[in-house]
Amino acid sequence: MGGAAITPAMLNLHNHTTFSDGAWTVQEILGAAARSGLSVIGISDHFATSKVHCVMPGELAQYAAAIREAARPYGGRLRVLAGAEIDSSAKRTDFSSIDLKALGALDYALFEYVEDGDADGMPLWEFLDVRKKVACKAGLAHNDFARNFKDMDAGELASVLAGNGIFLEMSTNRSYGRLGKQYYRLWPDLFVRHAKAGGALSIGCDIHSQLARVGDVADALDFLDAHGIRGALDGWLRA
Ligand SMILES: [Zn+2]
């Protein structure tokens, strides 16, 4: 996309708009991101799920184009990424009807509920197969790794995820915590080992209506700094 990299990376890649179940338009989210000092913002509306109003496969190109268009006025000051959130439950998403290669129109896809039995999420082994067909970056959104993968060793899980090009989201949304902590703070070793294995990380606020929280990334940045792995965000600054 050109332009110098904007450092340090202050990013929020999980935001919903009126294209799905968000209250604000893409333009309003971008405006709030610029005002709050973020350097990278991603739009990640729900895609092809029966759960909520969402972007349907036939609307993907138009959706991506609308985000690119809204990004234009920001030039190099704010890096805008086009993404989507995909519900991994086969009960709510008909994977047989989705052309995963068409996701190449986007910069990234966030998959929710992987290995989360309570939400009928897809098992990890099945997701690894899906991931190979997704033609953009792919990551796991607001996953309670410490619970969903409690039988796995951190190093083993990190090497599977990083080795398959899967990034991990740190959700700062209050809905995604337990025991008074955000999920990522419940298993720091996984994030450290993932970063050391060359895996990428992202931060997501999961905005639906609380526009003032678009820049609410401080806790995740503190976590990264405390573990010396903030560099795992840098890939998002590159075109
Ligand atoms: Zn979301």
Enumerate how many helices there are, as a single number: 7
Specify the oligomeric state.
single chain
Read across the widest sheet, the strand sequence of neighbours is 1-2-3-4-5-6-9
Main β-sheet, in a few words?
7 strands, parallel
Query: What is the end-to-end distance?
Result: 6 Å
User: Briefly, what CATH class?
Assistant: Alpha Beta
- The total number of structural domains is 1
Order of H and E elements: EHEHEEHEHHEEEHEH
Number of strands: 9
Average of per-residue pLDDT values: 94
CATH domain topology = TIM Barrel
* Ligands, deduplicated: zinc ion
| CATH architecture tag | Alpha-Beta Barrel
Unreliable spans are: none
How much beta, percentage-wise? 15-25%
Structural class: alpha/beta
Cα Rg = 16 Å
CATH-assigned homologous superfamily = Metal-dependent hydrolases
Describe this protein's structure.
- With 239 residues, the protein is of the alpha/beta class.
- It has one domain: Metal-dependent hydrolases (TIM Barrel), CATH 3.20.20.140.
- The protein is built from seven helices and nine strands.
- The strands form two sheets. A seven-stranded parallel sheet has the order 1-2-3-4-5-6-9. Strands 7-8 form a two-stranded antiparallel ribbon.
- Strand 4, helix 3 (124-133) and strand 5 (137-140) form a beta-alpha-beta unit.
- Helix 5 (154-163) packs across helix 6.
- The model has no long low-confidence stretch (mean pLDDT 94).
- Residues 14, 16, 85, 206 line the site of zinc ion (ZN).
